[in-house]
Specification:
The chain is globular. Helix 1 (11-32) links the parallel strand 1 (2-8) and strand 2. It has 2 domains: 2-153 and 408-430, 3-Layer(aba) Sandwich (Rossmann fold), CATH 3.40.50; 183-404, 3-Layer(aba) Sandwich (Rossmann fold). The chain has 17 helices and 15 strands. The protein is α/β, with parallel strands linked by helices and 436 residues long. It has helices at residues 11-32, 54-58, 73-78, 99-109, 135-139, 155-163, 192-212, 228-233, 240-244, 281-284, 296-303, 325-330, 337-351, 357-362, 376-387, 390-404, 409-426; strands at residues 2-8, 38-44, 67-68, 90-94, 112-117, 129-132, 149-151, 183-187, 217-221, 250-253, 263-266, 271-275, 289-292, 308-313, 369-372. The strands form 2 sheets. It has an 8-stranded mixed sheet with strand order 10-11-12-9-8-13-14-15, sandwiched between helices.
Length: 436
């Protein structure tokens, strides 16, 4: 009997990391005939990036047992048996957030711990295994801990592999877009700090683009943790950044004949189609280009090879309270939180060379990043220039596909989890696992 505890935080990680790993674990356990003997649970950790709907979203995933919301995490650490009778053996798997939370939970429950390291494993001393996304994360490990590490690959590539079987209305070989117009994807993020700033900026950009190129169409895929009424809240006049970026307020428009989706519409005729199905990969493949904020969006777009422009206006850094871990919690404190967030953001801008997943992974600029005091009209002009050079977009897409690598990361991680569980069962007493 075994418990597997998946530890995660925000909406992007729950949908793009937890979901494929959960499915892979169930496949592996079914093949072993051990599905009924293993409980798979999800623990959400405190995170300023969360929007509060992660537990409700995860409740729809097949195979999840206990779900502990983030607001109960501290109580779980203090009194774990208040929530369930945890089995004697178990494995805690870190899949997003502050890695220290997973370390503490594993120690409290007496379980083995595996860390999925996208960029860096911060506490390898207390990890039984490190599942590195790629060579970069593996190379950052101190030499003494590399015997505990294995490169499993990018979970985002599994998202693309799984969704590639979905129907698409773009015939093979035809470029993105078609003769009746071109489509752009708008991804303002799913977290409050990013939406309050990113949605007005993208609305102002889209309104300017439509003035210059009326046949352009726009799609906005909603994260499963975000409802359309919640999205609309950031696109109304009472959001001060609407006026700051010169965006005109929009309203929700219900589905109509010829358009089965809800839309965000403004008085000038702009209509942005909201994609509420998840994942929206098949529809995103129809787009020529995506305008996105920094974060998990860039990894998802890179996984499907969609050219993108990454945007972060720095005129209002004080609202970007979207940091993980303890620093993120400090950034939300009353009175001092604004200044903590501003200091952290300025530090990151001065220290980091790249902000999007493809550029960080490649170590060079594959996709354009516009970080600074940018204006929607300037971005719209740059987008129009890119649309006039389809060869540039196709070259960008080819580089993204080459960077993505093969699929199967979720399956490799699932097998590593069960390998750790088997090794733990064979040990006569607690101690370090054998080296890989």
């Amino acid at each position: 009997m075994l418990d597997i505890v998946l530890v995660s935080n925000g909406p992007g990680e729950v949908c793009t990391w937890v979901r494929p790993v959960l499915a892979a674990l169930r496949r592996e356990l079914t093949a072993r005939g051990a599905l009924d003997a293993v409980g798979i649970h999800l623990v959400l950790t405190p995170c300023p990036n969360a929007n509060g709907t992660e537990a409700r979203t995860a409740a729809h995933f097949v195979g999840i047992g206990q779900i502990v919301p983030a607001r109960h995490f501290c109580r779980l650490l203090c009194r774990p048996r208040r929530y369930r009778r945890w089995r004697h053996r178990g494995v805690v798997v870190f899949l997003g957030g502050d890695q220290m939370w997973a370390v503490l939970l594993a120690a409290r429950l007496g379980y083995r711990q595996i860390c999925y390291a996208e960029w860096v494993a911060r506490w390898p001393r207390w990890c039984d295994r490190v599942a590195a996304m790629g060579q970069r994360a593996y190379g950052r490990l101190p030499q003494r801990w590399r015997s505990r590490a294995r490169i499993v690959g990018d979970l985002m590539a599994d998202t693309e592999e799984r969704d590639s079987q979905l129907p698409t209305d773009r015939p093979a070989g035809r470029p993105r877009g078609n003769g009746s117009g071109e489509t752009l994807a708008l991804l303002p993020g799913s977290k409050p700090a990013k939406l309050s700033l990113g949605l007005p900026f993208l609305l102002a950009t889209a309104q300017r683009l439509r003035e210059c190129r009326p046949r352009l169409r726009f799609l906005l895929p909603l994260a499963p943790t975000l409802e359309r009424q919640e999205l609309l809240r950031y696109a109304l006049a009472d959001n001060p950044f609407m006026a700051a970026f010169g965006a005109r307020p929009v309203a929700l428009q219900p589905p109509q004949p010829g358009c089965p989706h809800w839309q965000l519409g403004s008085s000038d005729g702009l209509a942005i189609t909201l994609l509420e199905e998840y994942p929206a990969t098949a529809r995103l493949r129809q787009c020529r280009l995506a305008l996105t904020t920094i974060g998990a969006n860039t990894a998802e777009l890179g996984a499907i090879g969609l050219p993108m422009m990454v945007l972060l206006p720095t005129q209002h850094l004080q609202v970007m309270r979207a940091w993980d871990g303890c620093l993120g919690l400090l950034g939300r404190l009353p009175l001092v939180g604004r200044w903590v967030a501003l200091a952290m953001s300025r530090w990151a801008l001065a220290r980091m060379r790249f902000f999007s997943w493809p550029n960080i992974e490649a170590g060079r600029a594959i996709v354009p990043e516009r970080i600074g005091p940018i204006h929607p009209h300037a971005i719209a002009a740059e987008v129009l220039e890119l649309l006039q050079h389809p060869a540039t977009l196709e070259a960008m897409a080819a580089e993204l596909r080459a960077l993505r690598g093969g699929s199967g990361a979720a399956g490799r991680l699932a097998r590593l989890v069960l390998e750790v569980a088997d090794a733990d069962r064979q040990l006569q007493r607690r101690g370090p696992l054998q080296r890989i």
